[in-house]
Each structure stands twice: as structure tokens, then as C-alpha cells.
Amino acid sequence: MTSPFTLHSQASDCAARRGEVRTLHGTVQTPVFMPVGTQATVKGVTPENLKELGAQIILGNTYHLYIRPGHELIRSFGGLHKFMNWDQPILTDSGGFQIFSLKDLTKITEEGAAFKSHLDGSKLFLSPEDAVAVQEALGSDIMMCLDTCIPYPATREEAIASTDLTGRWAKRSRAAHKERGQLLFGIIQGGMYPDLRAKAVEELVEVGFDGYALGGLSVGEPAELMMEITEEIAALMPADYPRYLMGVGTPENLVEAVYRGIDMFDCVMPTRNARNGMLFTSSGRLVIKNARHQDDQRPVDEECDCYTCRHYSRAYLRHLFMAREILSSQLNTIHNLHYYVGLMARIRKAIEEDRFAQFRQEFYAKRTVE
Ligand SMILES: CC1(C)O[C@H]2[C@@H](O1)[C@@]1(COC(C)(C)O1)O[C@@H]2CNc1nc2cc3nc(N)[nH]c(=O)c3cc2[nH]1
Ligand SMILES: [Zn+2]
Fold first, then answer.
1. So which residues are the catalytic ones?
2. How far is the CA of 323 from the centre of ligand 1 (A)?
3. Of 10-19, 93-102, 264-273, where does mean pLDDT reach its minimum?
4. By Cβ atoms counted within 10 A, which residue in 65, 117, 156, 239 is the most buried?
5. HEC profile of 127-191
6. Where are the stretches annotated RNA binding (predicted)?
7. pTM greater than 0.90 (yes/no)
8. Is 267 annotated in some ligand binding site?
């Protein structure tokens, strides 16, 4: 198994590392934040906007695209890249999380997941092999195994049963995907039980994947617990393969998880919060509808050089938000994604110069509650 990951530099005073992941559609510099584009679009922005703000790789979702418009239609257009006019890397999540978020609409058996469409209630089924086949039809650069995301909290018995099933599904996913172009990542479950997670890492490495993801986190558990598990298990994940923490997180989460050795991240926060008028800045969060921004001529963040900050005032952005204008979501999303992608670029530079621990201190020193 040749790894798609190359380590460029390892921080001398923490687990942070600088590397790159080679994929069919290009090489991704890590640590990296991946904007979420669940339904073949990163909501509110064009691929050109994404390139201008520095996005290297985006996320799609197997469950959503399987349900609508269907993976066969997307295959007929030459795959997801052509269908959505994005020619850089795409990672598709397997749908494990979405299916299990449907709660009572799902029935899990050894064979796979039977569930009802959240759109029209129609009965659907995905086996681990089906999830691989759908992602092969989508042509994503990085595919995720179908897994069972354990809710928080869960008993040890529930975690054992669910993690063992995920392990058997991972073996089947690997067997279903042999060709080497598209990468396949394994997902580590185990709930909040480090020994179960350690066993899961061993079993997945035994099967052999192109990268390893920490699943079953950012599911409502306390941030301290998420970091504890991340710290303990990242250290057990193969150092010469990509490490992906699914569904994370806030800017602070990203800094803390990089410090503990994570390379890849995705989260709906920058895009979702943008649509809700919550903007990220170098000094903290800003709620644009707050009356104090009504006649503020300044940009969202004086240190930001994104399209939104170069052309628009807080007053104008507040006006758009209060008027429920479509442009509000577009401009706020461009800024928030530029902040997240820019934060990762600054993190990569700090690791290259072996000053990440100092960067981390300065990062917190600047954050005042807006
Ligand atoms: C569903 C939606 C939109 O994604 C966010 C957000 O809601 C929400 C809902 O509640 C909070 C916690 C606040 O964040 O959780 C999502 C972010 N956490 C997360 N994404 C994940 C994706 C995953 N995919 C797979 N295949 N397996 C996993 O174990 C897995 C775990 C994950 N954890
Ligand atoms: Zn900006």
C-alpha cells in the first residue's frame, strides 16, 4: 500500500505536521480545511469564488446525491467534477452520518442500511459496496467507507457492536474498491472509549486504506472530550497517511486539532453561520444584524483581503441581511470561507517555519469576544 501522503515537516514542539495528499485531480497541501458542498454546490458561492478565496478541495455527500439527482445521472455527465464545474479535488462522505442522523428512518443490518428518503419517504438501501459504487460513479478523489456513526452518549456495549460492524463494513468496502485512482479512507469509530478506538485503528490499518478518519466526534459531546479522544487516537493513526477529523469545527477546534496531529477538516460552520449572519474575524465572531453595525463604514475584518472586505462595509452587509437579500449569503460566505481557508494557510506557514506553538498562543491572544 503506497501512501498518497508526503510529510514535509514535523513541528519540533508538538504533533502538528505539514504535508500533502496526492489525488487524481491534484495535490492538496495540508493541514487543509474542506468547504462542505453537500448537494454538488458549496451553498451561495461559485467554483470561481472558491478558487479565488483559495479552496483546494471540497466535500460532497453520497447520501444526498444518491437521493437527488442520483449517481447515475451524475455519472452520465462525466462525474461530479464535470456536473458541478469543479476541476479540483473532491472528497465525498459515505452518508454514514446522514443516514444515522435520520434516526427512526433507518434500519441497520449486517447487510447495510435501510432508510427512508428525507425527501419523499421512499424506501432505500445502501450496503457498504453500494456506497463505494455510488462514489465511483461520482468520481470523487477521496471516498469514505459506509460506517455507523455512534451517537453521544452511547453505552460501551452499543459502541462495541457498532464499531465491530463498521469494521466488517470497512473490509467489504476495501474489497469492493480495488483500483488505485480514487482513494478510499477508513473511518475510526469506538464512541468515547479510547480502547475501542485503538482496536479500530489496528483493524483498519490491517485492512489497509489510503487515509484514516476520526468519525463519531463533533456529535454533541463536550469540546474537551472531543480533543481528548483526538489527542489520544491521532497519535495511534499511521504517521505516513492522512489523518482526517470529520465534521470539525470552529477556528479554535482547527488550531487545537492541528496541534494534536490532524491534517484534514470539514465543517458546515463557515457556510451555515454566514447564511445566519455570523461572521468570523481575526478578533472573534461578529453578528452582522447587531444594531451597532448599522452605520459602520469598516469592512468585516480590517485584516481580511477577501472580495467582501475589499468592496463592502459592515453597514451594507447588515442591510442585505436585514432585507433577506440573496447577496447577503453570497458575500458572508465568501468572507467566512476566506477566513477558514486563510487560517489554514497561516497554520501551514507557521509549521513550515517551526513556530506553530507560538502561532497558537498569538491566535488566542487576538481573540476578544465581539
Ligand atoms: C449534520 C450537520 C449539518 O453536520 C454537522 C452539524 O450538522 C452537526 C450536528 O450537530 C453538531 C454536532 C452541532 O454539528 O454535526 C455535523 C458535524 N459533525 C460531524 N460530521 C460528521 C460526519 C461523519 N461522517 C461519517 N461518515 N462518519 C462519521 O462518524 C461522521 C461524524 C461526523 N460528525
Ligand atoms: Zn473578508
1. 93, 266
2. 31
3. 93-102
4. 65
5. CHHHHHHHHHHHCCCEEECCCCCCCCCCCHHHHHHHHHHHHHHHHHHHHHCCCCCCEEEEEECCC
6. 247-253, 271-275
7. yes
8. no
